[in-house]
């Protein structure tokens, strides 16, 4: 971007708001921020496709005429000033999202994103984008060289407790501030000012640059890694860290939480979401997984895996987005707080992805069967469509999109998934919910069902009653059978602090079911048991000196507000609305995915003949091919 001023002018600049204003009459002037200027500026986080960190200079340079200044981190404002007019430019996050440059020549100012520099290669991977903000001041007279200093330290405002309560924008809201709650004080303080706080995590691997800034170092992945440390691993908003950070900002008013949350939101929108419709429907518009467990990211940046990971101790299983890693509620809250349309569009993109990935008619196998693929509801195993984080995250995304639009397609898909994965007659034991490694995430799904009651439960009496009956069934099973994972560590492959954090969700889930669904004496028992599970899990978490790793922190930030809410209303347990007897519900319809149906047809000679007859028709294959990414790419290639 460039703008101009008449040639009789001076260049004024400040390298940061705290620096003095400098000036020159030089014809050419250039400021380039090449790296972060931090201690670990040449970190392996910046590897290019050739496995090299290409930058050679730490920090920034200012060059004009015979002058050459160097520094670490520039937060500049640059102006052209004549006797009659002035133009001033400021770029927020100039050093944080390097490389950036500002070039003044003659009467022009150019702000350069991805500036041209000899030996530099800018690698924008498919589906990525980057966004920068530019502030301009144009006016008469020489102007004030400090007038845009605020751009680099903008004011923020947090709503009051009454505003939060009345807005309805926060579910399970309690006005108790976590920072003042002795139960959680130490962990929350560690997150922003402890020895491994989120800001230090950024510095540890230099999580800066246009692709990295805002994301969080997944430091917990070092525990069982054999590669050189620090292990480069990207968190990619697992467990909706964004939502946890935003809630703490709102509950505490501490601006440090916002300084973590806002860059993360914009990073998710630009980098973690796969901005394309040219790939398979199971990937298009989805959210990339965190990088693979216990392996250095190598050259994969924020993708799940790279070639450097293959053949190692814990080989990655895949590289594309998947339903078990889909987090939208933080983006929804960010939109409510800022009005950022890109955040709203991202929520809708992720919800539309849920619908598309499950749509058999968009799959290449559609000519053989148009049944749902099951990609939106499976967890851990392709053929498991019971309660798990796959279905839970899909339901949450659909609910968030429905909140934004009230479009019935989102609610219809939500209902379809609910009826698919749970039933009032379910036997949790038969579903192996006590298998820690395989089914630990079932509580993610149960919390999404409770959210359904909170957000959309009044839309359908039948679905409301069905969900309540399911939660009643699972709540009673939890009351009688659930225990803590670390009470039997031999069942775990890696008995880490994360298991204690995951147990927090067992406690909050049972507390919410006891209060919001069951009520009465049985609800009291569930509530008390849930509170005990949470308290014991919290105590176990505190015994780990690794409790401030990113993953347990993200889970704790997600579950602490729910615990506080449930605790604040625990003495006012509501009377149960009652649940319909399980015998009054129709038997559960066993879900069979598109591939399962095709496999079943292949086992039956009669069905196989019918299917082959369908397969011989060219029209369905042509239609299916047109919907594939290959067809789209070929069409674009030949239409150029």
Descriptive account of the structure:
This protein is of the alpha+beta class and 640 residues long. The protein contains 19 helices and 11 strands. Strands 1-10-9-4-5-6 form a 6-stranded antiparallel β-sheet, with no helix packed on it. The longest helix has 23 residues. It is globular and about 85 Å long. The C terminus is likely disordered.
What structural category arises from helix and sheet content? Answer: alpha+beta
Q: Biggest sheet: strands, sense, closure?
A: 6 strands, antiparallel
- What fraction, in percent, of the residue positions are helical? 40-55%
How many whole angstroms does the radius of gyration measure? 27 Å
List low-confidence stretches: 633-640
| Mean model confidence by pLDDT | 88
Total helices: the number is: 19
**Total strands:** 11
C-alpha end-to-end distance: 27 Å
Keywords, please?
640 residues; six-stranded antiparallel β-sheet; alpha+beta; five-stranded antiparallel β-sheet; 40% helix; 19 helices
């Amino acid at each position: 971007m460039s703008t101009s001023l008449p040639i009789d002018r001076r260049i004024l600049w400040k390298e940061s708001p705290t620096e003095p204003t400098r000036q020159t009459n030089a014809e050419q002037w250039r400021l380039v921020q090449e790296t972060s200027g931090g201690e670990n500026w040449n970190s392996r986080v910046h590897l290019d496709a050739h496995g090299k960190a290409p930058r050679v200079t730490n920090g920034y340079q200012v060059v004009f005429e015979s002058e050459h200044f160097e520094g670490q981190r520039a937060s500049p404002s640059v102006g052209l000033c004549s006797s009659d007019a002035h133009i001033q430019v400021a770029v927020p996050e100039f050093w944080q999202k390097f490389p950036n440059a500002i070039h003044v020549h003659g009467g022009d100012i150019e702000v350069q994103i991805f500036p041209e520099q000899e030996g530099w290669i800018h690698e924008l991977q498919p589906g990525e984008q980057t966004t920068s903000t530019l502030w301009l001041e144009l006016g008469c007279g020489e102007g004030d060289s400090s007038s845009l200093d605020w751009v680099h330290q903008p004011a923020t405002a947090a709503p009051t407790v009454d505003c939060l309560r009345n807005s309805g924008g926060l579910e399970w809201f309690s006005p108790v501030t976590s920072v003042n709650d002795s139960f959680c004080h130490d962990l929350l303080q560690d997150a922003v000012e402890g020895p491994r706080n989120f800001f230090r995590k950024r510095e540890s691997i230099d999580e800066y640059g246009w692709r990295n800034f805002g994301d969080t170092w997944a430091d917990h992945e070092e525990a069982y890694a054999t590669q050189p440390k620090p292990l480069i691993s990207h968190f990619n908003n697992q467990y909706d860290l964004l939502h946890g950070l935003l809630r703490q900002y709102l509950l505490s008013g501490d601006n440090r939480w916002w300084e973590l949350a806002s860059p993360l939101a914009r990073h998710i929108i630009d980098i973690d979401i796969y901005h394309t419709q040219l790939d398979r429907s199971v990937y298009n518009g989805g959210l990339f997984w965190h990088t693979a467990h216990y392996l250095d990211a190598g050259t994969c940046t924020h993708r799940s895996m790279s070639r450097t990971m293959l053949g190692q101790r814990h080989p990655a299983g895949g590289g594309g987005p998947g339903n078990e890693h889909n987090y939208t509620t933080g983006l929804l809250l960010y939109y409510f707080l800022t009005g950022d349309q890109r955040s709203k569009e991202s929520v809708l993109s992720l919800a539309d992805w849920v619908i598309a990935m499950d749509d058999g008619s968009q799959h290449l196998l559609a000519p053989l069967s148009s049944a749902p693929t099951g990609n939106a509801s499976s967890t851990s195993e392709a053929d498991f469509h019971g309660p798990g984080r796959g279905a839970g995250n899909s339901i949450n995304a659909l609910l968030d999109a429905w909140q934004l639009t009230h479009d019935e397609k989102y609610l219809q898909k939500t209902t379809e998934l609910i009826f698919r994965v749970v039933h009032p007659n379910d036997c949790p034991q038969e579903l192996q919910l006590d298998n820690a490694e395989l089914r630990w995430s079932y509580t993610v799904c149960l919390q999404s069902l409770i959210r359904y009651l909170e957000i959309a439960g009044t839309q359908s009496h039948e679905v409301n009653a069905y969900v309540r009956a399911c939660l009643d069934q699972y709540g009673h099973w939890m009351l009688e059978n659930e225990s803590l994972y670390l009470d039997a560590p031999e069942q775990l492959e890696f008995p880490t602090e994360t298991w204690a954090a995951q147990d927090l969700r067992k406690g909050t889930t049972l507390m919410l079911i006891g209060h919001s669904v069951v009520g009465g004496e049985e609800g009291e028992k569930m509530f008390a048991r849930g509170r005990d599970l949470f308290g014991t899990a919290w105590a176990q978490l505190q015994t780990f000196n690794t409790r401030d790793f990113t993953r347990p922190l993200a889970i704790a930030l997600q579950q602490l507000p729910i615990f506080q809410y449930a605790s604040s209303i625990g003495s006012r347990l509501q009377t149960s609305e009652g649940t319909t007897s399980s015998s009054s519900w129709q038997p559960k319809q066993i879900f069979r995915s598109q591939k399962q149906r095709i496999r079943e047809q292949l086992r039956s000679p009669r069905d196989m003949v019918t299917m082959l007859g369908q397969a011989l028709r060219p029209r369905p294959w042509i239609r299916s091919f047109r919907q594939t990414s290959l067809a789209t790419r070929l069409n674009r290639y030949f239409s150029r």
